[in-house]
Amino acid sequence: MKFLAILASCTVLSAGAAFAESHVDKSDWPTSFTVGTASQGGTYFAYGSGWANLVAKELGITGGGEVTGGPMQNMALVHTGEAAFGMTTMGPAAESLAGTNPIAPGLEMNKACAMFPMYQTPFSVTALSSSGIKSVADIPAGAKIGFGPAGSTSDTYFPRMMETLGVDFERRNGGWTDLGGQLQDGLLDVIAFAAGVPVPAVSQLEVQTDVNIIEFTDEEQAKLLEAFPVSEFSIKASTYTTLKEDATSVSMWNFSIANCDLPASFVKEVVNVVMSDNERMVGIHKAAGSTLPENWDKNKVLKWHPGAAEWFKENAGADIPADMIYGG
Fold first, then answer.
1. Mean pLDDT of 197-219
2. What residues form DSSP beta bridges with 116?
3. Rounded Cα gap, residues 274 and 292, in angstroms
4. Do domains 31-118+255-324 and 121-252 have the same CATH topology?
5. Residue 149: which of 175, 131, 123, 170 has the closest Cα?
6. pLDDT at 13 over 50
7. What is the mean pLDDT of residues 102-128?
8. Is 177 a residue whose pLDDT tops 50?
9. Where is the signal peptide (predicted)?
10. pLDDT: is 196 or 128 the higher one?
11. Domain residue spans in the chain?
């Protein structure tokens, strides 16, 4: 009897779910979609293609990831509707809204709306222990600092951050592995990373030599939080063998974006597929460990898509002001 009661209950729940789904008006839904990611081999491509395939399977429509130039281009593609969805960081998002996206200078890309939080890109600073540089204040005037590949998020924002903190430097660019080698050879004084941690180049340096992982002071962190679209971040001591305790830093959040004119019911269902099962998302990419409903508040730049805002209000208790919702 108990088994029959449980079976009956499950049948009612299943019928209820099917009934609810059948009453979602899909008449204005697109028949296919693309997600703007970045180059193959990077986190964006793996993460974006993964959730695109998941959504396509769950909602029964055609969809997939598309190779792009990354956050700046994704803002442009989603704004124009060439891509239904995309992925961006808060910095490029802010620049695109202000009309300073280098892809289309002067165009305010306000048709790209926030959809759901993805994960953080931390900013971290490393120097050789032999340099004596243990803090940002220790960086000497005219120091040669490697900021990563030209045009990257790191190269776009870290130099400005250093200037905000009063550091005088010479700018150097290159791949992270190459910059790590230059630091070890004494050709650079500091390398400044905006990348997921642990940064492989830093981990490799730890094996080969003694390094200092430089954290920001509370005052320095506060200055950066005020001046840039970044959030508080703590690099866990377990991240590097060099660290003895957590290190204070900042990070720039990555958010999935949707064209603001997409049907609210469609975007709400997409968000539900991604946000309702984090274990499934982590199976797609470990970075999705931060793809959690409570991180909705990390968006302080983009207006929310109405469908996404509705989902987070209903499922995460999100207190999203009306003026931060597109059309509100």
1. 91
2. 256
3. 9
4. yes
5. 175
6. no
7. 94
8. yes
9. 1-20
10. 128
11. 31-118+255-324, 121-252
Confidence (pLDDT) at 255: 96
Look at strands 85-89 and 32-36 and give their pairing.
Answer: parallel
Residue found under tokens 């029959």: 4
**pLDDT for res 320:** 97
Tokens representing residue 168 in the block: 């005088």
- Under the banding of pLDDT at 50, 70 and 90, the label for residue 20 is very low
Question: What is 198-238 written as a DSSP string?
Answer: S-HHHHHHHHHS-EEEEPPPHHHHHHHHHHSS-EEEEE-GG
Structure tokens at 265: 């019911």
Per DSSP, the three-state class of 26 is coil
Torsions phi, psi of 267, nearest 5?
Answer: -65, -40
Tokens of 262: 């997409």
**Sequence-ordered list of residues with C-beta below 8 angstroms from that of 234, at least 6 positions apart, any chain:** 246, 247, 248, 249
Written as six digits, the tokens of 266 are 């469609």
> d(Cα 71, Cα 94) in Å, to the nearest integer?
11
What ranges in the chain are assigned the alpha helix state H?
2-22, 43-59, 71-80, 90-97, 153-164, 176-184, 200-208, 218-227, 264-275, 278-284, 306-316
Question: What's at 164, amino acid-wise?
Answer: T
pLDDT in tens, 290-326: 999 999 999 999 999 999 999 999 999 999 999 999 9
The CATH homologous superfamily for domain 121-252 is: Periplasmic binding protein-like II (3.40.190.10)
Amino acid present at 34: T
Tell me whether residue 27 is exposed, middle or buried, using C-beta atoms within 10 angstroms of its C-beta: 0 to 12, 13 to 18, 19 or more.
exposed
Which residues have CB under 8 Å from 16's CB, separation 6+? none
**Which amino acid, 27?**
S
CATH number of 31-118+255-324: 3.40.190.10
Using the predicted structure, report yes or no on whether residue 35 has a pLDDT greater than 50. Answer: yes
